[in-house]
Design goal:
The protein is mostly helical. It has three helices and no strands. The protein has one domain. α2 packs across α3. The protein is flat and about 40 Å long.
Length: 72
């Protein structure tokens, strides 16, 4: 079971790194074919969290806490 958790943690770390790469590439180069419209999707997520007010802040805190534990 510990091995599976380790693999899931490593895959999550890779996914988070790819999202960060997509955001950086989107800021610098615009839409890049490899990463797609990650920046646009992230902005849409932030806008939807902002539209939800306090619930959005709570969800954002939970998500940042999840990613904070992974070492990012």
């Amino acid at each position: 079971m510990g091995k599976i958790k380790g693999w899931i943690g490593e895959l999550t770390d890779i996914a988070v790194a790819l999202v960060a790469l997509g955001v950086a590439a989107g800021v610098v180069f615009g839409d890049v074919p490899f990463v797609g419209a990650v920046l646009g999707n992230l902005i849409d997520l932030i806008n939807s969290l902002g539209d939800n007010g306090v619930v959005g802040i709570i969800v954002l805190a939970i998500l940042s806490g999840m990613y904070g534990r992974s070492g990012m």
